[in-house]
Specification:
The protein has a five-stranded parallel beta sheet, with helices on both faces. It has a five-stranded parallel beta sheet with strand order 7-6-8-9-10, sandwiched between helices. Helix 6 crosses helix 11 and helix 7 crosses helix 9. It has two domains: about 150 residues, Rossmann fold, CATH 3.40.50; about 180 residues, Rossmann fold, CATH 3.40.50. By secondary structure, the chain is α/β, with parallel strands linked by helices. It is built from eleven helices and ten strands.
């Protein structure tokens, strides 16, 4: 086998995946690994993780890999990855995939947009794709797994001479720890990037109206939305222009704030006629207590898994800070800000 062959981590007791994986990997040079003798060293390789999670949504191989990734922050350094999660119930597949992608990303793995092919026990989550492909749900699942394997094998992330960054937030400049960190990062990257800042703080924003497909498509093809407001008028054009989106995300009850969620929900219209697959996603999360990982996983779930933004290694920085101004005074924060900014430059800038 060549070092450039796709490394396939096979985990769990496969049943349906025994039929899906051969279809997904046909004609693609690959090497299959199990975790029987521990997690293999696959740094620098293209990686496809194939997990059968069982009825209860967790099994020994999954726990073993997750622990390894959290303990070894360079375990997947230089890797480009994708994940297939095969379930036997209607629950857990996306949760397991999102948690594994977050841990792998923290351990150095780069994920292209939509890096998760997940199948519930009934395969009802493939109803729409099967209709679009004029096939049955199992065949649609195979198609999704195949498309993911091909994308991982061929993926080449873009780099830019002078990348354009959109920093989006809904924070108060006078009190926000999250915005203070974002501005500190921008101060370090601005010699290499062009930065546009948009604040949603004082704007009236409607959440997604839930238009039918044809109505949403009508507006989306014009890069518009049923609602005008700042999202369609300002954010849409800036997002289309940018090479990377930097989201500033205070933790509100272990979730993104309402205006950021509304923005994400409203991206559906823009995504109808535009691809985000060549745009990078970065995030800064600040929690007053804990739960920064939950917000980071929500961010990657909505914008990478669903909306196709690329997820570069260590895409997020999570900080705990409660009192206004305390984030910039926390221990080691200067080093963390510099490391995050340096990583943005490393991932984005053609040098």
């Amino acid at each position: 086998m060549s070092f450039s062959d796709l490394a396939v981590l096979s985990m769990g007791s496969h049943q349906r995946l025994n039929e899906v994986l051969p279809f997904a990997l046909e004609g693609i040079k690959h090497e299959v690994f199990t975790l029987e003798n521990g997690v293999p060293d696959i740094r620098g390789r293209r990686v496809l993780i194939a997990e059968s999670c069982g009825e209860w949504g967790i099994e020994g191989d999954y726990i073993k890999l997750l622990l390894h990734l959290r303990q070894h922050r360079d375990a997947l350094s230089g890797c480009i990855g994708g994940i297939i999660i095969d379930g036997t119930s209607e629950l857990y597949t996306k949760e397991l995939g999102r948690k594994l992608i977050y841990a792998a990303n923290e351990a150095g793995c780069f994920f292209p947009g939509k890096p998760l092919a997940e199948a519930t026990g009934s395969l009802l989550n493939y109803n729409i794709l099967s209709q679009n492909l004029n096939t049955d749900n199992l065949s649609a699942y195979k198609h999704a797994a195949r498309a993911l394997a091909e994308r991982i094998a061929a993926f080449r992330p873009a780099k830019f001479k002078r990348p354009r960054i959109l920093m989006l937030h809904a924070s108060d400049r006078s009190t926000s720890n999250t915005l203070a960190l974002g501005l500190a990062v921008c101060e370090q990257i601005k010699p290499y990037c062009d930065i546009t800042e948009i604040s949603l703080l004082n704007a009236r924003i409607n959440d997604c109206r839930g238009c039918g497909y044809h109505a949403c498509s009508h507006f989306g093809k014009q890069n518009l939305c049923y609602y005008g407001d700042i999202v369609a008028d300002d954010v849409y054009p800036a997002l289309l222009e940018c090479d990377a989106l930097l989201m500033l995300c205070p933790n509100y009850n272990d979730t993104l704030s309402a205006k950021l969620i509304a923005f994400i929900n409203r991206l559906t219209a823009l995504a109808i006629s535009n691809s985000f697959e060549n745009k990078y996603l970065f995030g800064i999360v600040v929690s007053g207590y804990s739960g920064g990982d939950l917000v980071a996983m929500q961010l990657l779930g909505s914008l990478c898994l669903n909306k196709s933004f690329m997820l570069p290694p260590s895409f997020s920085m999570a900080v705990t800070a409660h009192e206004p101004g305390s984030a910039l005074k926390s221990r080691g924060i200067e080093k963390r800000i510099s490391a995050f900014a340096d990583n943005m430059i490393k991932q984005l800038v053609y040098q």
